[in-house]
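Example record

The entry below shows one chain as it appears in the dataset: sequence first, then structure tokens.
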Amino acid sequence: MKKVLVIISQASDGTFWCHTESDIYGGGLNSAGNTVKEAKDDLAICLEDARQDYVERGGKPYDVTFEYKYDLQSFFDYFSFLNVSEIAKRAGINPSLMRQYTSGIKNAGEKTYSRLSECIANITKELQAASFC
């Protein structure tokens, strides 16, 4: 099984793009969509097309799993059920500034991304420890 990093980001025209950081079946993959979900769906089609072409050239197919790395706009587009302002508060970021980051008006710095990554990791741990009775 090959694990491949996919970078997802929002373009200046508002569309979302996926691109692989390494080759799969002899080349890199790129996809796009009006939403992150559409871009991921397009990436799955690109992967299948590349796999079929690889097999037709005599290659032996292998399993591929994707690991995703998002910019802020892409993350909150895909995980739209998360409240941007509440996550900003949990991460110690001004909610108004966070909304500007997620709308693309301003760009977040490395320190902000680090705080958000830690916040999301903590939320993940809390959710994994939760259950219903």
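Notes for this example: The first helix runs from residue 36 to 56. Helices lie at 36-56, 72-78, 84-91, 95-103, 110-129.
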